[in-house]
Amino acid sequence: MARNRKRAKQRKAKRDASASGEGIVRDDIPASLDHSSADVDEFEAKLVAGAEGTPADPKVDPSAGGVVHPEGLSAAEFAELEDRIDDVEAKIETGDQESISEAEESLEVDIEARQAAAALAPASADQPERKKSIFGRFFDFLRASWSELQRVQWPDRRQVGQATAVVLGFVVIAGAYLGLADAAAQKIVDLII
Predict the structure, then answer these.
(1) Domain ranges in the chain?
(2) Is the pLDDT reported for residue 23 higher than 50?
(3) Which of the two ends of the chain, N or C, has the fewest CB atoms closer than 10 A to its terminal CB?
């Protein structure tokens, strides 16, 4: 149990170090791009800074669907959660499918109840709701669209040439098919008339 607490504290420290408090709430970049180049890091910084996203609630884990992260719980709630997880792990180790499914269903019901409570909870009082004009929202839309367009990996000259050749090949094949179909239909019409 101490190992789990240690890992939870490490995750919280890592999350707190990387959280800026404001900006876009977004998932991590896929693992293959984590350390690919400095350009990726620079781009990510510009993307998050330029889009002016909504501030994330530090107590809510974005991947948990509105459920408070375990590090945001009180000591008693955290201990209860650890005990429940230990019970589920013990049932999994025994291999009894019925008790495993009961424990998983119990956890799922609890998670759904917490998510429903989080969805019904009022917005944070320390964050005043900003009303933007339609022009401000349109400008934000254009800025976010531009950021997404910068994020796209555009094709190079070879890829464009290859795609053009494929399209032209398809046009030639379709033209030949339609030409042959027209010639055959013309012969049939001439025979009938």
Answers:
(1) 2-157, 158-193
(2) no
(3) C
